[in-house]
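Field reference: sequence -> structure
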Amino acid sequence: METTLDKLEANKQTVLAFYEAGLNGKDFDAASKLIGPRYVQHNPQIADGIEGFKGFVEYLSETFPNLHAKIHKIFAEGDYVVAHVHGVRVPGQRGTAIVDIFKLEDGKIVEHWDVMQPIPEDALNENGMF
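Structure field:
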């Protein structure tokens, strides 16, 4: 019998696998197996649906083939998973601090939101963004 903790951990593992396949691996086919029958995209720069995600992966493959996303923290509550991510499009760049929010249904990703902030060269504190 699956417990709430089992479901939360499974949802986190789904999101981790999605990152590895879709973003780091640029493997749409593998990542698409983790997406549910609907995929609502809230990032205004990515088209809605599974085809929108496919176009995004193709764009990354062509434009930023060495893009890498490192998840620093991941949290799950209910049907939601939140990841605190360091995204670097080109090796050697400072990159972007990202908070991704995913909604899952029946263990599959069905909705995505994100907030992104470029990592500045200079900061007014020494705390870092991760």
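Note: The radius of gyration is 15 Å.
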